[in-house]
Design goal:
Structural class: alpha/beta
Number of helices: 14
Strand content: 15-25%
Number of domains: 2
Radius of gyration: 24 Å
Helix content: 25-40%
CATH topology of the largest domain: FAD/NAD(P)-binding domain
Distance between the termini: 16 Å
Shape: globular
Oligomer: single chain
Largest sheet: 9 strands, mixed
Number of strands: 23
Amino acid sequence: MEHFDVLIIGAGISGIGAGYHLQTKCPDRTYAILEGRDDLGGTWDLFRYPGIRSDSDMHTLGYEFKPWKADKAIADGPAILEYLRETAEENSIARHIRFKQLASLAEWSSDDARWIVHARRSDTDEDLTYTCNFLFMCSGYYSYKGGHSPDFPNSSTFGGQIIHPQEWPEDLDYAVKRVVVIGSGATAMTLVPAMAETAEHITMLQRSPTYVVSMPDHDVIANALRKVLPDKLAYNITRWKNVTLGNLFYGRTRTHPEGVKAKLLDRVRKELGDDYDVEKHFTPSYNPWDQRLCLVPNSDLFKAIRSGAASVVTDEIDTFTETGIRTLDGTELEADIIVTATGLELVTLGEMEFVVDGDQVDFSKTWTYKGFAYSDIPNLASCFGYVNASWTLRVDLICKCVCGLLNKMDETSTVQCTPRLRPSDANMAPRPYIDDFSAGYIQRVLPLLPMQGDRAPWVNTQSYAKDKTLLGKNPVDDGVMTFTNPVAAPTDLVSARST
């Protein structure tokens, strides 16, 4: 049984970032990263479908500490994976990763002030046990076992292939094939223009539209700055620019939703022409940023539609048929391949089971502390990024905050930190963990997630500007996060941690 000061679960974009911040800001702490798969990268290693790319710019999706130097700001999956590999190698993080080790259970003992983490090696079926003082969950927010797949009527009668993007076959040949992609999210809008290049025809079948905005995949200002400034300075300026513009745009959607809606739809009309039915196919029933906007780099989706290689059908599915799909209005969509780009299955904390002093944890009964920790759960943190901005912006902030907690325990000679409700917090009205966001993939999992309250620090702001203060500037010993030692032999436990 190996012991580490900190055990990180997941070697994706969050876990690698956590490793960097730990060894930079807490260099005396030992740590390991458990990764259930056989490679690092998380999302960017798992998804292999055509056109896989970021849906936000790499100057904000990239780490604060490692400049993105490529010309493309909207990067493809392989480029992002290479960026993560470079980060892990340059900072000697890779040697801390234990691959093919899937963690399933974590048990906390207050007497010992440590977690016992149970894992299994996928290549040998060996059961492994680790102990750690602090557990940092960086396993993402969706299930790696499979995506969300609705039960479509008579899907077994279809004579072709049915594929979910999360399980894309490496040898799939869709050249000169008829393809129907079910869905209207970022995955569907990535797949359609990529597959349209060689498919006979591709149809995006959506139950309801999504807001779409076209942007160049190159950031002209960023590329110009890199020619005259050091990489780090150019990156920081571009990052500030993009964060500021993103915040301004999001704020506008909250205060003037109708005006933003009109401008977004006007841009679509300019792309597709006055004769195209933008009202039916690209006008959602909700306001902008009530769900995530879909980015279309270089107008690739619109170009595919204009060329006739792709089309959009907005209707519900009546039934699958032997040759394709029939919609409720009777339209027959013939297909050789059907892609169900119907979303992810969100989960809580890596689908692990948590037990604290013999009691199983139900996270839906807890309150979120600053969006990364949980009321009455000691020495546990998790990374959950933004739904309205780049994921990594929040990863950097959370990792720094976790390091602050670890260093505060050193300063106070304590081994346990636990967020606890104050007497004044007892009557807080609960709100959903993520508020003001109606996307189905979030709504499906909200009953399993912790509550947020009506006051700091029991909030999950989903605001980078607010989090810079809440996570970055507010003191860690805020009267809510309590720093303690177990009743039994606290001095021995502290010295053991240092050893």
